[in-house]
Amino acid sequence: MESLLFALSAYALPIAIGLLSLIAITAWAPRSAADSSVALKFRALHELDGPLSTAQAARGIEAQPQQSFIDTKRSEAGFWLLIEPLKGNDTEPSVIELPSRHAVDVACWNAVSLEPLGRGQQNSALGAIRSVKSGFAISLGAAEALQPLLCRVHSVGPARLTAIQWPASELQVSAQEFTHNEGLLTGGLVVLALFVLVTALINRTATYLLFATWLLLNLRVAALSAGWDGEWLGHTVPQDILWAGRALTMALYYTVTITLFKTLFADDLEQVGNSGAMRVAQWTCLPLVVASLLIPYGQFLPVIWVATGISTGLLVYLLVRILLKTRSRVAMWYGSSIVITLFASVYEVVSAALGLQALIGTVNSVTAALSSSLLASLAIAEQMRQEHVERMAVQAELAHTYEAMPIGLFTLDTYGNFVSANPALRRMLADDVLKPGSRAWQRHFSEGAWMQLLSMVHQRSDGELELKGLPQGDNAAVRRYLVKATLARDKIEGSLQDVTEKSRATEDLQFMANNDALTKVLNRRGIEKVLTHAMQQISGNRPLALAYLDLDRFKLINDLYGHAAGDEVLQQVCKRISDMLSGGMQIGRVGGDEFIIVLPDTRIPLASVICQGVVACIRATPYRIKDKAFTVRASVGLIDVDAGVQIKDAVSAADRACRQAKAGGGHNGLVVYEKNAEAFRQHEAELALVERFSTNSATEGLFLEMQPIMSLNAPHDSLNFEVLLRMRDTNGQRIPTDRVISAGEASGHMGVIDRWVLSTTLAWLNSNASKLQSTRFICVNLSGASLNDETFMQDVFAMLAQNIHITGRLCLEITESVALHDLENTRRFIDKIRSYGAKVALDDFGAGYTSFSYLKVLSADLLKIDGSFIVNMNKHPANIAIVEAIVSLARNLGMKTIAEWAEDNATVQTLAEIGVDYVQGFAVARPRIPEQMLEAQSSASFIEDEALRRITERLGKADDELLQVSLFDANRPRNMH
Hints:
This protein is of the alpha+beta class. It contains 31 helices and 36 strands.
């Protein structure tokens, strides 16, 4: 019986009511009586040139033709109508209705006597005029008293003016039907909106709240279309609010419709694309709302018409795409709703814009509004059904996942007892975890685990914690678990994952990330972390020392005995060093045989003692590898780190001190830089130069000096010199050249400097070529970094090609070490340079290991003998023998020789005696500014020492007696070696 009653009430009765309603609409007679209204023709006069008086209008309107209607075309100027009523029923007075909902002010006069009959506005009426439905009505009185009417109508918007004559009783019935339809639409939609609003509040769903708002706006738009928007819930809307409200209502309806569409079909729109077009439609909403408040109603209508037309097409297009792609029933119902709404809106827009007579009456407007709202409700209901189905499916899936999840899931009460646990958690902890006596969290984890968990969930909502479990047996290993938990509704919900292996692997990875795989001491990353932390703790009472250690000539062990032997030695070295350190001192390997030692809370005196001990410990006893023993020495640079110093600067300073110790500049392999040491200032100056060379002002402050190179065969016949780079800082003080070159190479901008030197030299030579007639060659030194830069080399070739007329006087110097670095590339470069007519000199010759062997490959013009053989050569007969051998070799290969660093007269005389061709050094002249070079006749002109001047005079006379061919004569044959 219960099922029968439910089926009758829930299914049979609603179906019967629906069928009966359908029959009533289609077959039963309507309640209203027959309609005997008559549409009247009238004459119309438009006040195009300004307001007219009643008499002027009466005279002017007689010439106008009769017509059934007139469209105002949104004109807000007045229209005069001459209406001639028809004779009606003698027993019932007649009424003429002016039904335009856009009319705001109507005044009528007797067309014969011009006596006023009355005046009506939306909220008030006088005389024979009253508000009826959405327009006005004029009572005519008795049939025999019918006289032509002269009426003036003022309207706002796209009004169509018509005149309909009614029997008074029938108009009253029509007005009642109008009010009935208004109540039907208002009541139905308000009830539906309230239902949706309650649903939204109960379910806390913003979509339903948005839909309730759309229903109410749909009601207002339907009321506007039907002409009863002057009332709201039985109350009259004030006239000053009504017109502004109409524009705002349309703009808000447009906005909410697009917003509801985007909300309902957010996921579907992602699938079909066209998100850009939808965003454009959304961006038009707020401007339309603002425009509705600022623009007059008549001017706003075309704007909303255009926006409605474009948006209608866009929404219909997107709906079709969604239906074709997703086959969504929500889209189907909502599409039907929006099609009805948009069709009614578009039809009204087209009717108003084109002046078509409306075909849809009041009842149809009500039907369209109700139908669209009901169909939209079906769309919402379908979406609710789908969400319910999805929610049930998700709940089922969650239940299955909870049981099958390989990660333990649990719920705890606030006392730390298990309330629920999935199978995975029971397998991890114990099968009886939910049984009385075994439910306590603390029973399964190490001491303090419950307080840690409780603290975590109260401090943050998404925390995680790694805990140690209690051994499950006597010999069982301790397991580690990762706990993620949150506090929810006075319960702790969380997950438990066995991360024992992962935790061990993570520890190994962390060790590998911060420690050297070979020696097990910290690597560069690890020691930099330690150094960073130590530098943050620097204060007046917490000093910090930093040592940079380099093993001397350790590469020989690898080269001679293999890397396996070298690796074992490194391991033993690190152990010795580690045993020497205490407290928070740490060592890190930052290179093959380079280490950093961080000594926090250690002042320089104590750090020096420790470092001396480290150096002594390293070399104290040999390192035994199988049957071999190795002795290793170390050099250490130690610095006192000041607060505010950057890590890279501190390491760089310590490295500099280590290099100084390695070069023999320290005591027992140790060099110490204390605070404010000169080395620090030099290093800071070098770093400032590096930074400066990295900017666009790299060449600012650079200038050139020139040092004469004197011929020992004919001292007074030629003016040759070497171009030397110089630089001044911003205060005008000179910067040591070696610092400039070091900074240029460190910054990677040495090519910029060399390019400036070469281009400046060529420009100066171009400008002063006529004053340098006795100049045979001008030496310009190129750095090794620049010669390894292919772009720089191409720039050199380009500059030589542009200055081909003077390149014969240019001599580019290449150091021996650079030449040996890439012999084939150097040979190609020299051949290319010489093809432009320039000369090439090999600088620092004799300082390398294989100088003689490569000379047969490189066809250079000059050899510049390294200055270490020249300085005080008379005190070292071996140096004289070496220089003499170099001279003989160069002569046999067709090259000339230059001796650098000649600092006294005896050296110059010895060089001349053994056959050196040119000499350069302070004995002849110190570097000069370019202007002084232009004033000299020869390099010998700069000699100030009288004894040396006499030597050069004798050399000149000897040269006159011996006929020699200069290497740099213009027509000399080329040496093709």
